[in-house]
């Protein structure tokens, strides 16, 4: 172990220019801070001794075909994987099961490194695909009281490095004094990893999964979603385009260019007309034109012909007496003529009889 730290320190010293002076702070920054390495979560305080014992028969069995190319894999229809639950040792796929990343600790090759402005970080030496399991967040399991005690201690010594992560309503993970490489992961407002809570052998555990493809030699980050217990906020130096400026604050929304309104184009708004069943619409009156009058009935035609005939006579008694006698004889002739008279001529007073009466006058 000491040889590994010494080799790491030599590599960092080679990158330092000879003009830079070595100070105690610089020497201490050559190696990551000391911590006790853990492979699984370790209960502490009131949680010490509490262990979840699960019978193998109670574990959910998936229905994956063990003869498939990738049984229980990310592209399979594994029921346990859909429910964020790891398969147990009794899975039908056996050793070919691809849904036991937590238990087998299938991590890519990760290494801590010194960042320019944000202290120590964690980067990958291998290409990571989107959705791939990166690492489990491991540390000491503590309760609410122990969390408050440790926070008070950090406040007294002015330690601003926090490694707490909520597991459930009663437990929290503290990866500060004891943990694994996940403790070196920095915060980012646009991270490439996210936390997911999985059920592993009946207990809840937190894992970090890639949100997108991560090339080799890239830093792996996740969003802390920090809830500030004090008044002061911690400044964020992630350098993302949508950086909020403070750890725990929401990232800034990407500004989209506003669309300019077209002045030449008119816009019309539809008027909403509400229909009321109690109010009846008024009937629309149809306008009749003189050019298309109504058809006259037989009685109306007879009365109109008589009116036109009498309007052309003189006021003498002989004429009036003659009309009364001769009108009976001319009835059949008038009936034949009225069929040839159009309604337009009757309205305009231009019937053949009316013309004849005007000539006689």
UniProtKB/TrEMBL annotation:
Start and end residues of each Post-SET domain: 232-248
Biased composition annotated in UniProt, kind: Basic residues: 258-272
Cross-referenced Pfam families: AWS, SET
Disordered as annotated region, ranges: 249-296, 312-361
SET domain span: 108-225
GO CC, any one term: nucleus
Organism: Papilio xuthus
Gene Ontology MF: a single term: protein-lysine N-methyltransferase activity
GO biological process: methylation
Record localization: Chromosome; Nucleus
Domain AWS positions: 57-106
Name the record gives this protein: Histone-lysine N-methyltransferase, H3 lysine-36 and H4 lysine-20 specific
UniProt keyword terms in alphabetical order: Chromosome, Methyltransferase, Nucleus, S-adenosyl-L-methionine, Transferase
UniProt-listed PANTHER family: SET DOMAIN PROTEINS (PTHR22884)
């Amino acid at each position: 172990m000491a040889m590994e730290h010494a080799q790491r320190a030599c590599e960092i010293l080679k990158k330092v220019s000879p003009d830079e002076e070595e100070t105690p702070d610089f020497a201490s920054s050559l190696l990551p801070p000391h911590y006790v390495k853990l492979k699984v979560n370790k209960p502490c305080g009131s949680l010490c001794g509490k262990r979840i014992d699960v019978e193998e028969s109670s574990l959910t069995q998936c229905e994956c075909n063990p003869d498939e190319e990738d049984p229980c894999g990310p592209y399979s229809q594994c029921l346990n994987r859909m429910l964020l639950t790891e398969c147990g040792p009794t899975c039908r796929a056996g050793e070919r099961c691809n849904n036991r990343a937590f238990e087998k600790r299938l991590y890519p090759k990760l290494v801590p490194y010194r960042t320019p402005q944000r202290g120590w970080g964690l980067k990958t030496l291998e290409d990571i695909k989107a959705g791939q399991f990166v690492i489990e967040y491991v540390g000491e399991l503590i309760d609410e009281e122990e969390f408050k005690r440790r926070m008070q201690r950090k406040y007294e010594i002015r330690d601003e490095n926090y490694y707490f992560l909520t597991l459930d309503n009663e437990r929290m993970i503290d990866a500060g004094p004891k943990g694994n490489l996940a403790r070196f992961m920095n915060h980012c407002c646009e991270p490439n990893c996210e936390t997911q809570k999985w059920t592993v052998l009946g207990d809840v555990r937190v894992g970090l999964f890639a949100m997108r493809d991560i090339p080799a030699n890239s830093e792996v980050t996740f969003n802390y979603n920090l809830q500030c217990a004090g008044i002061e906020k911690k400044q964020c130096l992630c350098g993302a385009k949508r950086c909020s400026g403070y750890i725990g604050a929401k990232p800034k929304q990407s500004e989209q260019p506003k669309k300019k309104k077209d002045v030449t184009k008119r816009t019309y708004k539809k008027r909403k007309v509400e229909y009321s069943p109690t109010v009846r619409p008024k009937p629309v009156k149809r306008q009749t034109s003189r050019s298309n009058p109504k058809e006259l009935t037989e009685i109306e035609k007879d009365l109109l012909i008589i009116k036109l005939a009498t309007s052309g006579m003189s006021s003498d008694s002989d004429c009036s007496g003659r009309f009364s006698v001769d009108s009976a004889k001319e009835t059949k002739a008038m009936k034949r003529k009225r069929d040839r008279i159009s309604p337009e001529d009757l309205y305009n007073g231009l019937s053949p009889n009316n013309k004849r009466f005007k000539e006689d006058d």
